[in-house]
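Hey everyone, long-time lurker, first post.

I ran two proteins through the pipeline my lab uses and got sequence/structure pairs for each. Pasting them in order. The first:
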Amino acid sequence: MHLSRRRFNRYLIAAIGVVALPAWAKELVEGRDWKPLATPQAGDDPSKIEVLEFFAYGCPHCSDLNPLIKDWAARLPEDVVFRRIPVTFGRKAWENLARLFHSLEYTGDLDRLDQAVFDALHERRERLVTRDRILDWVADQGLEREAFAKVFDSFGVQTRLARSEQLAERYRISAVPQIVVDGRYVVVGKAATRVEDLLMIADELIAKARAESQTG
């Protein structure tokens, strides 16, 4: 598999990060590494610790984080559930991209094409900003254009999009990527120098939520 220099450096840094933890990582500090959510939110499954990643395909930092957070999520323990929530911030282009995410999820093509969307936008600078451009792109990826268009415009996808917008509003998301743990803790990472540090903070917040649920 061919890797761009940017992608190669990203994975190299991730590998180094496994053994080279920053000094501040020994103890997380409220306000520097994390903050409490102003209004705690209940997850869909009270028996699980829910981790939400609010992201946007148009965000370059989300693109850098995506392959790392997917690998991280695949290793989460059974008591943790991970969900990704696309946000739009009222931008029509980002709304179309959020609709693309939900459509790919609906058709079962998200795993195959999720990173490809980021790469198209940030590696090849393709302007996937309109419905027609997006439909042309998915056709180039081997999907049937008209069938995908029906999903893209469907009530089901519209409902998912509205749900994402409601969650972003409830969690008061003002920037992406944003990771929220257990509906209570927001990863801040002011001392973080790498995107990998955000996941390390999330790990510590998961442990904190687990410990509190066991003693509460």
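...and the second, right after it:
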Amino acid sequence: MINISKRDQSILRSLAGQLAEIAALPVQEETRRLWRKLNGLKPERPMVTIDQVCWNEMEVGDELALQCENDFCRSLESQMRQTLYQWRHFPVDMVVEPFIRLGKAIHNSGFGIVVNEHVSVKDPTNSVVGHAYINQFAEDRDLEKIQMPVITHDAAETERRLSAAHDLFDGIIGVFDQGYDPYLSVWDPISTWMSVQDVLYALVDRPEFMLAMARRMVDGYMSMLDQLEAQGLLCHSQALIHCTGAFTDDLPAPGFNPDKPRTQDIWMFGLAQMFATVSPDMFEEFEIDVCMPLFERFGLVYYGCCDPLDRKMKQVRRIPNLRKISMSPWTNEEIGASEIKSDYVFSRKPSPSLLATDQFDEQAVRNHLQKSVDICRTYGCPLELILKDVSTVRYDPRRLWRWAEIATDVVRG
């Protein structure tokens, strides 16, 4: 049992009541409908999301200041205060759900590798730091370090959390027990085990070793997914997939059972960010071919992140069930749009650097966003603008608020 003081209870119920009022607004279902239209490749207008922001720089008037004492309560409070803050100041096309998502007590043993690194910190309040990774895979025998993940569920702890949440929120707002939303990048973890530089050298100098390493990772992920399915621990009814709206009429698949979700019932996102500098052929061999077993088992796929994919669309198109393709700040948008056309969602990542300049230039922001809208209109691309990786706004949160207003104006103009 989680002991919650009357003071903590009062704080959380007040926040939950505010969220419930917002969640009941008709605009929430209208926004879901617009996301379903976009994700069905029949958009009515471009959509906009903002995620992964520098919350350490967002405080204004103690809107984000935590008041609860209990750690469980503080976690819920933080989640709710951030949602309320975003709704007030930079909502764009966010959806406020009529429930609190509460994660199940799922443990993933992982691949058994502890990252060895040096960290450089510029702003101690910011979670964005510099990393210098130490290579732990210098010899072929080091592949044995990679273990197969084991998934376990502490059902008693899950029930303890749910019981506390229902005691807090029943009659005010719903509680949704959230299953495991899998992160399946092969090369991002490997980059932290070897360093990006050493991986890129090894792709040339030790290709068979790197292929064996990547395949071992995929085998581990496939085993992990099998375990999650067998134990009924996968998530379902995703609201977001990699920082953007996941509402769709195409999921779940026929035969869906909410007590036993399958990978075919949900989205996945894939990425190989360090492959920005490799050739299309190498990208195909080491990423697309290797990860195909993962792509094939999911209902829909969102592919890409910061990796520029404008010149690798031939390879990206091989991904089954592909629906969204990231177009990062480093892409040639004209090339990307001419390749994507109306076949997929053009998931544009506007540059967050425009929020970090000495002087915030609103016209530069407007021009930057309008260019994406105009190019996608020319080529008939369904478009979403996803502002993410915002590591600083120079401690001026109103820059982000204004970015949201400009983006809203651009996509609805």
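Reply from user beta_strand_b:
Welcome! Quick read of the second one: Residues 207-230 form the longest helix (24 residues). The mean pLDDT is 96.
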